[in-house]
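Usage

Read records sequentially. Each one opens with the input sequence:
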Amino acid sequence: MKKILLIQTGGTIAMNAKGAGVELDPDSWSKVLYEEIPELSDIAEISTFPLFFEDSSDLNASHWIQLANCVEENYSQYDGFVILHGTDTMAYSASALSFGLKNLGKPVIFTGSQLPMSSIRSDARRNLVNAIELATMDFKEVGICFNDALYRGNRATKMSIGDFDAFGSPNFNPLADIGIQIQTRVAEKFGKGKLENAASYSDEVFVLTAHPNLNPTLLEGLSLKKIRAVIIRAFGSGNFCVKGEKSLLPFLDNCREAGVTVAIVSQADYDSIDLTQYTAGRAALKHGAISGNDMTLEAALTKLMFLLAHYDSKTDIEDLFQQSLVGEL
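and closes with the structure output:
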């Protein structure tokens, strides 16, 4: 029987039935887990590890490093890992770990729920059973298991607040569909050799959402001395205002002069940035911007955070950002 480490980080799945917050201590949480889902022991030999208990909106790079360290320290003892996590930033954490855990040869599956496990209509039971079974299979990457699907972690994004079908993977098919049988589509291995824990992330990234009537003078107070990369969430295939006093092109010029990388992703979930298609995109290229292709915001942000922590050269960072490292684009 496979050995699975179940890592608890908090989130809705660990709340009490009244939804008052993450109140269960580690010992009582493990007891509730087996009372609610006694058949888990029929799937795998499961050990639980309460790493931390936090609302996922309070998580940051320091928590991603804790998660990567936990996987590394227990890597030889277990066949797979399941991480219970709040839904709000699950896609960020999964993306960050996909870059930080290099040469991953075992499944690392994130899951959670929209309702607390102790709620009578909770989706926690199904998600957890599915995630543990998937963690016994031959996946060699970081995934998100939710509502009968397994998504590549760095391709997933939260799509719904109120539906059980909370996550989607707009530009990449699920790694597995879960019905009466589990239908797998992809079983890839990124990298060769021994697991390398390279989890380190810079916070020198700023995300800017383009919108009509955005006043560029508001950006003049942004200290580019403290920023090494900017992500612009543009319209459609990479459009934003390039005419008149609302043009963002002077901001792009300021970034280039300051040695700041500017990457462009789309506010649209589906399809890809194409900076050659329209006037704005071509202007962005001329003024030094690079394309985020079809990456999610979560993947683009955590990838830049990872690259900035490991490379000093702007050229290296921009080149690697535009390459697929672990299937993120």
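Summary fields computed downstream for this record:
- The CA atoms of residues 138 and 187 lie 7 Å apart.
- Residues 3-197 form a domain with the Rossmann fold fold (CATH 3.40.50.1170).
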